[in-house]
């Protein structure tokens, strides 16, 4: 019994920390990823061996507003005129935080606006070159002084070969890969992308926790384990199907519709724990809603892009990363939940209170995603 308070604290952290992080993202500054795509090709004539660079850098306007204050009139609404008037400031802030190896230069040729699933982004269209013999590498430090959780999803194509990486935190440098093993370097990059996305995808985490919270209430370890396995397997199978279909452009749905539906799925799953309507076959709900979440994963993968010649491998690696990240969450949550399943703390505070908090947050997301 002496281990119970400690276990309860750990479980509370697993349930409520994603909720607290997600709530801060909904009501305050919402951390996000940027998307950097660069193409490096040897110039003609070949004897010069000069490398030309072109690409784009998509940076969330909300992050830039947090960093340098784009909302000049203070009405909490960014307009194109406000963004355009601060173009020079955006460039002056962003470009020094994207370092290149010696002998390479990069400049902003033009600025555009684009909408991603999680909001509006400024697009910096990039042009540059590298001197003969220069080894291409980048050092990514965007928002490093403001947000330790920010990450840059980088995809670099050099003479037709693509390498990807999640940059930020302790890993800021991406150097041109060696010709040997570049395919596996691509796969490892997409694997890390998948793990990072599920760990920072608070809506996906809270949906999964909403389904797992009542799973351990089944009497007996084996029946409870079987219920958890059915829920997790159904979710995995479903989102793997739609992730693949969407990433391979077999099926396409509007991002606003998908993101709104994902928020609704989180609300429904959480409310079912407070006022149970579906009890015995929650794995069916896990599968049905998992199809929606797969489209959400595909939206992130679409922003990142799939390399030519290694599409299937990159897709499989990204999906494997999502599954590994998901299994880590399940492995951390389920044993503690099972230990505490018969306590008032778990049944009332975790299941009822935690689910109510998740439902409220999900409904805020739903309104935000459907209207903004």
Brief account:
With 372 residues, this protein is of the alpha+beta class.
Number of helices: 11
Poorly predicted ranges: 22-30
Number of domains: 2
- Record the strand order, biggest sheet: 4-5-2-1-7-8
Query: Strand pairing plus helix content: what structural class?
Result: alpha+beta
Number of strands: 9
End-to-end distance: 49 Å
Radius of gyration: 22 Å
Please write the string of helix (H) and strand (E) elements: HEEHHHEEEEEEEHHHHHHH
What's the overall average pLDDT, rounded? Answer: 81
Summarize the main sheet: 6 strands, mixed
Measured by DSSP, the beta-strand proportion falls in 15-25%
List keywords for this structure.
single chain, 372 residues, three-stranded antiparallel sheet, 9 strands, 11 helices, six-stranded mixed sheet, alpha+beta
Describe this protein's structure.
- The chain has helices at 4-27, 61-68, 80-85, 87-94, 182-200, 202-212, 221-247, 255-274, 282-304, 311-340, 344-371, and strands spanning 33-42, 51-60, 98-100, 104-116, 119-130, 137-140, 151-158, 161-167, 173-175.
- With 372 residues, it is of the alpha+beta class.
- It has two domains: 4-29 and 195-371, no CATH class; 33-180.
- The strands form two sheets. It has a six-stranded mixed sheet. Strands 3-6-9 form a three-stranded antiparallel sheet, with no helix packed on it.
- Residues 22-30 have low confidence and may be disordered.
